[in-house]
């Protein structure tokens, strides 16, 4: 299962925190305005979402919506340089999608090129965009069925990636509606719990960044609240499902720690994973590292997860959090857990010193 928010230090998902800042990139810019905007002037991209919807309806296509920071977001620029500016990608992707670039620039010159910044903000909030670049594949009814961002490999690899997430996303769209309708219409305790079980299975099968996760959260939470004393074991099932998807609140975390105080079931470590998925700035990064230090002495049930979290935390501490001692400690823990990736091992050796 993908955890695209898990490795914020490794993946190019960009936020304003120094923990998650993009590498400085000044290439392909002119007068403060990035070449990310160039395709818009060439007619390949729309800067106005609503205009793009009209065109997509007329052409029988879906939408590819790129939330970008054209004059500051290094990974946004990199994505355009490596993928979106190439004919191999444009020719294939334009067969099924109308392209939309919703820009959130910082310079006055670039801001002047954005036709409707208020509408862009509305769409960003509606779709829950938390970093740049964020790419949605959407139908003309405004339903986002797939979400991605920067992917290495060039234009042909990106087309393949888009095809894969589009297929799985449309499948999830159908599945989420089916299980939600079955659950809401079920009558009687036995039928209701059976429908809930099917719904949780579908929920667990979704990628963590699937746009349809949020549509099922309240239904999954119903099991957590209804089986309040966990006599039927549904509360624990619901808690694990929600936390695994990065759905975090104080009640869920408190229950997981109470139900699994020594991490023997792996619930405790999921709360730490969730804390990492919620990192947005230096303060939340420090809180995630503290949670990791709490679970490390217990040991991880999922060794790969334990390595990834310690590796990520070590890089944060060695970098923007500026805590060399803690970086060395967490790096040593990651080395102890182990990995077959030589590049990660080399990075850890450099951190440990």
UniProtKB/TrEMBL annotation:
Which segments constitute the Thioredoxin domain?
16-167
Does the entry feature the keyword Chaperone, yes or no?
Answer: no
Which InterPro entries does this chain map to?
AGR/TXD, Thioredoxin-like_fold, Thioredoxin-like_sf, Thioredoxin_domain
Name the EC number(s): 1.8.-.-
Q: Which domain of life is it from?
A: Bacteria
Record PROSITE patterns: THIOREDOXIN_2
Query: Which keywords does UniProt give here?
Result: Oxidoreductase, Signal
Signal sequence range: 1-21
PANTHER family per the UniProt record, alphabetical:
ANTERIOR GRADIENT PROTEIN-RELATED, THIOREDOXIN DOMAIN-CONTAINING PROTEIN
Q: What is this protein called?
A: Disulfide bond reductase DsbH
